[in-house]
Write a sequence for this structure.
């Protein structure tokens, strides 16, 4: 197996690990705890299922840590295609979005702290505590939307690198760019035109699925080394 195939499959396993762990903290836990528009019920859910929220927090910290290693693996795989684009992929994919998610977890920790019954919170009424806990969970959701902008942006240099690589099907690069458009459309609509989310979100979700073929291809097949006569010097290393 070529060095590039091993690098591709390593990236595929990391991609899969992110894909399996991310929905726990980003989708499943909020769906179980947040009762839309009902601060009291949401706070009661947190009180009854604090461990679930902590699992969600751990999930976010875990998958974002793995995401850093994924971006580095993709950088090693694609840096010989275009160094500048590969660096831009790292900046947008890891150096910007990951810190946003890490800091955003503080909002969930704040919600937990509010409902833990500490004596210093006795100056607030239960309704006030419930409202603040609900607010922090909603702020966490807004933070994820902001991070989603960069989850879309990093896919543009990634997709361009795939298209230019010569050893990964160009269609996968196009799908990555469409997935980036989907992420951007969903996040920007939520921030700027929330009244139209119901129209944009279904389309955005379909486009975002464009990342999945890349994950499968990296994981199952890996990147195919070119034959010596068709290779680009310095681009592929074969052992």
């Amino acid at each position: 197996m070529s060095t590039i195939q091993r690098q591709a499959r390593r990236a595929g396993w990391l991609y899969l690990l992110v894909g399996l762990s991310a929905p726990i903290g980003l989708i499943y836990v909020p769906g179980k705890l947040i009762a839309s528009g009902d601060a009291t019920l949401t706070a009661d859910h947190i009180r009854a299922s604090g461990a679930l929220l902590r699992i969600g927090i751990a999930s976010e910290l875990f998958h974002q840590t793995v995401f850093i290693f994924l971006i580095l693996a993709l950088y090693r795989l694609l840096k010989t295609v275009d160094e500048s684009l590969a660096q831009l992929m790292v900046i947008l994919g890891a150096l910007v979005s990951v810190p946003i998610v890490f800091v955003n977890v503080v909002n969930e920790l704040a919600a937990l702290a509010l409902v833990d019954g500490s004596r210093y919170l006795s100056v607030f009424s239960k309704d006030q505590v419930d409202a603040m806990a609900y607010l922090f969970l909603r702020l966490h959701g807004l933070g994820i939307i902001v991070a989603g902008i960069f989850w879309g942006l990093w896919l543009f240099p990634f997709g361009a690198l795939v298209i230019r690589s010569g050893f990964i099907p160009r269609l996968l690069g196009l799908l990555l760019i469409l997935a980036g458009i989907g992420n951007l459309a969903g996040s920007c609509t939520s921030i700027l035109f929330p009244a139209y989310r119901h129209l944009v979100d279904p389309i955005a979700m379909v486009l975002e699925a464009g990342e999945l073929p890349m994950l499968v291809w990296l994981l199952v097949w890996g990147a195919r080394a070119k034959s010596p006569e068709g290779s680009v010097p310095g681009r592929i290393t074969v052992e």
Observations:
- Residues 12 and 134 are 37 Å apart (CA to CA).
- Confidence is low (pLDDT under 50) at residues 225-239.
- DSSP finds nine helices and no strands in the chain.
- The first helix runs from residue 3 to 33.
